Amino acid sequence: MKKILSIALALILAAVLCACGGKTNTASSDTTAAGTTADPDSGQNAITDVSETYTSISAAAAALVDGLTEDQKTSGLPTDCSSDVSSITEAGNYYFTGTLTKAITVAKNAGEVHIYLDNVTLSVEDDNAISSKTGASVTITLIGTNTLSNTLGSKNKDKHVIDSKESLTINGTGTLTIRSTKSAIACDQTFIGLGGTVTVNAVKHAVTADSIYLDGMTIRAEYCGKDVLHAESDYDEVETAPEFDFGKGFVYIENGSITTTTVLGDGIQADSFVYIKSGTFDLTTTATWNDGYVATANQEKGMFSVSTHQKVARDSVWKGSTYAVLEESVKGIKVGEIDYYLATDTEQANELTVASDRYAIVIEGGTFTVNTVDDAIHANSGSVLVYGGELTINTSDDGIHADTNLKIAGNAVITIENSYEGIEAETIDISGGTTTINAQDDGVNATNSNLTESQQKTVCQINISGGRLDVTVSPNGDRDGIDSNGGIKITGGVVITRGPSSEMASPVDAANAISITGGTVIVIGNAPGTGGRMSGPGGRMGGPGGNGEGTLSVASNMTKTQSSTNGLSSGSHTVTVGGTTISYRNAYTYSGYTTVYASGTATIG
């Protein structure tokens, strides 16, 4: 955790302290006017605007749904079905039942083909169980209990069980169990899951496609050697760099269910965006470790303890020392970035990335239980937008990480039960929801490790205008409850933050400035006037003898109430302002003070 400057929320202005005889508050509570003359916008940075990204994602999702044909949505068994035609050469409806002995193939340019599987069992060697060529749009309807599998035979060829060179749709109310020597389902265009329950044991992915759309399908990943859902655009041997495209490389889930048992890759991975509106997602991934990695530089990222597999702070990583590292990405939900190879790179030695800040994960609803060693939710070069849903996260790394912006709004309920860092992004915007964080290091962190300290001061920002944010970190060590390498602006909502009272850590820490103009802010574990990082005179804020550079701005209508005895111990506590009582619970006992900034006098219970 790299520090630039600590700016204390619990600052008592020198003038106020002098008027009180310069004494440290040791009474059970003390209420003072909290206003300062500092500019509330001084030292604050702009939050990344994600409105265009959200609009584009919504439009791409709507276009996919609008493009669905009646045949793709139809699951009822028609009367004009051909039976037991394993080699399909033309459009039509095809019905299969019982134990099959031949693989089902759909020829090139066959057109619109609808396959009905009714209690089918099919196992093949060195081959696909069902395959279709270009020019064939295939829909599979599941009836009853079906099993498709392949094995390695004399040719020792690994194959996808279902392989489509165009888009593929699966619907129905039946079940399908797939055992595959490669991926369970693969298609070169869009996979559309509109029904049925699919249980997968696959050497690679459960579903791999250019894009994936689920509405009503249940996927149970009993074993995947790679990702469960893997949406990747194929840009190999392109003549020029492709442009970012919202119409490719995405996962869109209108409603669905995904449950994992053993997954050695990511739960959900996409190139451009992941958009989830509702459903149930129990995503547990399993790490594959390299316990003999030798660090190539000081402060190298992604290091874990060899003995415990716990995350190692970058400041504690030393070149030449041995650490554990992950062999594969094992995130819960990830947006990766669009990669490509130029045609001139015949050896594919130089993988390039489409530069864009529009990669995104959008969650509007659903119930999520995510258990990972890697980041639980992660967006490369883009944003994470959580507008709804209930998320419960346990991870050894970041709970939610976005390279650019993290936005929490609406009625989202996020509970990060365990994490290394709770939520992390260059800019963080919280306007609603209920967010509860337990972290080993910083709880909320506005940072960009690819920038210098001076650059981060001009872009990193935390804005809180609504909702409830409750942050717990240990009372010991070098960690902050809320930490920004730029500014922090609080204009509304309820903020409860805790942290050590030390020279290197605090409940709230900013490189530029902290502004409080509204809401209720409860700071647990600060020690005004004692020289600590949450201090007044003699401390880091630049009072007499201090060396601070920033400012604390608190609106004149805000009142500060402070207690050196209440609200610090482990257990349940309350803060009452006016007729509103805020309840919270401390996992630890903190030293110092409980300080409340609110629009009226607070009673600290």
Written account of the structure:
A hairpin with a 2-residue loop joins strand 48 and strand 49. Among the domains are: 14-48 and 449-604, no CATH class; 290-327, no CATH class. The strands form four sheets. It has an eight-stranded parallel barrel. Strands 49-48-51 form a three-stranded antiparallel beta sheet, with no helix packed on it. It has a two-stranded antiparallel ribbon with strand order 21-22. It has four helices and 51 strands. With 605 residues, it is mostly beta strands.
Kindly summarize this structure in a few lines.
Helix content is 5%, strand content 46%. With 605 residues, the chain is mainly β. The strands form four sheets. An eight-stranded parallel barrel has the order 6-8-11-13-15-14-12-9. Strands 49-48-51 form a three-stranded antiparallel β-sheet, with no helix packed on it. It has a two-stranded antiparallel ribbon with strand order 21-22.
Give the end-to-end Cα distance, rounded to a whole number of Å.
32 Å
Largest sheet: 8 strands, parallel, barrel
* SSE class: mainly beta
Fraction of residues in H or I helices: under 10%
